[in-house]
Amino acid sequence: MIPEAREVHLSRKDRKVLEACCRSPVTLQRDLKRARIVLLAADGRSTRLIAKEVGVQPRIVSLWRHRYADHGLEGLQDKPRPGKQPIYTKTTDKRILKLLDKPPPQGFARWTGPLLAEALGDVDVQYVWRFLRSHKIDLVARKSWCESNDPNFTAKAADVVGLYVAPPAKAIVLCVDEKPSIQALERAQGYLKLPSGRALTGQSHDYKRHGTTTLFAALEVATGKIIATHSKRRRRVEFLDFMNSVTAAFPNRKLHVILDNLNTHKKNEDWLKAHPNVQFHFTPTSAPWLNQVEVWFSILQGQSLSGTSFTSLKQLQEHIDAYVNAYNDRAEPFVWTKKKVRQRRFKGRRITQL
User: Fold this and answer.
1) 314-337 residue pLDDT tens
2) Residue 120, Cβ neighbours under 10 Å: how many?
3) From CA 26, how far away is CA 215, in angstroms rounded?
4) What confidence category does residue 248 fall into, taking pLDDT thresholds of 50, 70 and 90?
5) What pLDDT score does 335 carry?
6) In this structure, what are the phi and psi dihedrals at residue 213, rounded to the nearest 5 degrees?
């Protein structure tokens, strides 16, 4: 049964709006029909005649006549609909985060999306992945760090950085350390051509050992040049022998030597008394990154040692010596850019010590 027709009285302003809506080529069909219904109703047409002319059911005409009469132009807009209730809520999100704080199932190294979904029981794995992505939680990537617990961290760091930024006048600043147990591995390697036609370098998994060498290196901070020698071991004897060769390379010069906290670097007072022009400076505990020669060791590994093959220990040593000579020909000093070095604990991290 069609409700009793409501009288529709249009203001001049509303009529202009509805007529403009009917003339516009971008008006949605639903809005066009509602505007025509109201305009025809204002002209005194009956509900059935309007329904026939507009092409809708009479009950639709009655609906929009009542809506305009009660609410004006706002009544012609769709009311907000509740929609489907979400399956997962903030409670689900809290459950996922709480589960991540717990250790993974026995035998597993870390949580994965399927493991989380299985442990939750009623949460789809796709939602777990979406939640992790939205919160930028990466279950695979790993970061490592080392916090120094040296009570004199600030003083030691300032001492070392001060030598980089403002070295003493007429003095040589050297960074000294060892790269132990460099292996002379013999591998089958060369260029491989794939069935697709692409060529790339490769090496076999099988290898033959030909011994190891320990590389002692001193980096001159002002020039970036390297002094290096090989040794079978890295004891105090070998370290002091290397320091003798370093002092011989800079006769009658004041030397400031930056070292890490390796035991062989310390308790060398007798040697220092015999060499009063040499002063040792030690990086803080668990902070070897302050020693610039560590940067050079990384360059050596990437540019000279990775992906190479050696048939003897002598070949390895000659290979490193050739690289050192080539590096010194184009050596440039490292530029210290970090303005502040402070001892600060990690904050806002949920770290569980097991």
Assistant:
1) 999 999 999 999 999 999 999 888
2) 16
3) 78
4) very high
5) 87
6) -135, 150
Element holding 98 (H helix, E strand): helix 90-100
- For 22-54, letters b (16+ CB in 10 Å) and e give eeeeeeeeebbbbbbbbbbbbeebebeebbeeb
Beta bridge partners of 175: 219, 258
pLDDT exceeds 50 at position 354: no
Query: Can you tell me the distance from the alpha carbon of 155 to that of 138, in angstroms, rounded to the nearest whole number?
Result: 37
CA distance 44 to 50: 10
Residues 250-277 as b/e (b if ≥16 CB within 10 A, e otherwise) read: beeeebbbbbbeeeebeebeebeeebee
Residues in the chain: 354
- If we measure between CA atoms, which residue out of 216, 341, 218, 340 comes closest to residue 287? 341
Residues contacting residue 218 through CB under 8 Å, at least 6 positions apart? 174, 175, 176, 226, 227, 228, 242, 246, 257, 293
Residue 218, both tokens: 């001193």
Whether the Cβ atoms of residue 258 and residue 288 lie closer than 8 Å to each other: no
Instruction: Name every residue whose Cβ is closer than 8 Å to that of residue 156 and which is 6 or more positions away in sequence.
Output: 150, 281, 282, 283, 284, 287
SS3 141: coil
C-alpha gyration radius of the chain: 39
